[in-house]
Amino acid sequence: MSANSIPRPTDPVTAHFRLMPPQKAALAKLGIVSIHDLLYHFPSRHLNAGGVATITTLADGERATVYAQVVKTDTKKSFHGGVPMSTATLRDPTGTLSVLWFHQPYMAKMFVAGDFVEATGTVKKDARGVTLINPEMKKTDRLPGDVNGSLFTANKDGVDNTPELYPVYPESRGITSRWFFHAMQRIFASGILDTLDYPLPSDILERYNLPSLQTALVWLHSPRDEKHALSARKRFAFEEIFFIQLERQRSRLLYEQNPTFTITADKKGLSTFIKQFGFPFTEAQKNSVDAILADFRSSRAMLRLLEGDVGSGKTAVAATTAYAVVNTRPSGQDFGTLQVAYMCPTEILASQHFESFIQYFVGTGIQIALITGSGCKKFPSKVDPSGWTDISRTQLLKWVANGEIPILIGTHALIQKSVKFKHLAYVIIDEQHRFGTAQRAKLVQKDG
């Protein structure tokens, strides 16, 4: 990276770093193309560098982490009791140590001579040498040191460059945490942090005591203590949630700008409709109906979630509010009714709601239809006023389009282009989490 040029976040990594083909492939696999990608490739964890030591500095009884190379492995049984165990000999530039795993003979088969490993365990040091007892050990691509100097020793100027916490990054073959650490230091030294825009307003940072973007990046990639690393993680987590909420608010504002119908329910007719259920509404059901009716009277489009356990009466609330809608005339007309669409994730669920609505609406004269991939049905039947009849898809679509059928229940079939409404005023989506945002929006925008 040139000392005279400040990289831009959009610059490709290859413009500022000399990369070998394996490194380029590894970065591409990790999705890192630009300097911005590199800055936002956060460590998955941090090792306490104070616990990372060379073999000759290990003290008896301490718990430490050692980076070393496997010299040999073996399996044997202890002299007393014949306990099966694995052994290994590790070496770093300062010396060698022994590793013992009791009751774990399989460990010797997991490593071979030449493997680079990270071993963490309790040190036993005596006249016979240094031993790690039952350590946690895993392979690494290489020891944490390179031609630029070891991460754990003084640099060429004699200055200790050991960080308090050593960042461990998501890696891929060809690129290591060691490389990422030095790459970040070079990026920070370039002055790029002073050119970055704040994605969060300063008053938000002050209100929630969050570090600035520049500070958070340094604290996450080169923390001096765990408190700084945690603070940086919280800051980026807050930023992610903040923008998710911001996008949701933006979507809601756009949604509320959709054309709406002002609906004022006939309280007397609604009361009569509720009585025919054969059971009194709970306070929760009454409150839900009242809240939805209040939204109907507003000039803004409603966006409301109705929650409740199975059997709590959500369908009764849906039917009651649907009744209020289909008994309302379109604005400026003394004929026709507003329409309701009720979308369900499965044919079984759609059929169940269709049968429930028939029970609730029998005797009202209000027509209800069902459309699924398996066929179409209409209630009431001319032959049986309390039952339904099969009808052709073409006929159903015609009646929905001219407004003759005010309530249409169905599956994803509702959002097909061939389904058109004349005055769609109320959309109910059952188990809405099982539909995508785009699918829900398609149905909402189907008013003719």
UniProtKB/TrEMBL annotation:
Pfam assignment, any one: DEAD
Keyword check for ATP-binding: yes
InterPro entries: DEAD/DEAH_box_helicase_dom (IPR011545), Helicase_ATP-bd (IPR014001), NA-bd_OB-fold (IPR012340), P-loop_NTPase (IPR027417), RecG/Mfd (IPR047112), RecG_wedge (IPR033454)
Residues spanning the membrane: none
Superkingdom of the source species: Bacteria
Domain Helicase ATP-binding: 295-448
Assigned keywords, A-Z: ATP-binding, DNA damage, DNA repair, DNA-binding, Helicase, Hydrolase, Nucleotide-binding
Keyword rRNA-binding: no
GO molecular function: ATP binding; DNA binding; DNA helicase activity; hydrolase activity
GO annotation, biological process: DNA repair
Protein name: ATP-dependent DNA helicase RecG
